[in-house]
Amino acid sequence: MSAYFLTFTYPDGHAEEIEEVFPTLKDAVSYGDSLLNQVRVTESMKKAGRNSGDAEEPSYIVKEVKDGKRSIVYRSE
Question: Which of 10, 12, 19, 33 has the most CB atoms within 10 Å of its CB?
Answer without folding.
Answer: 10
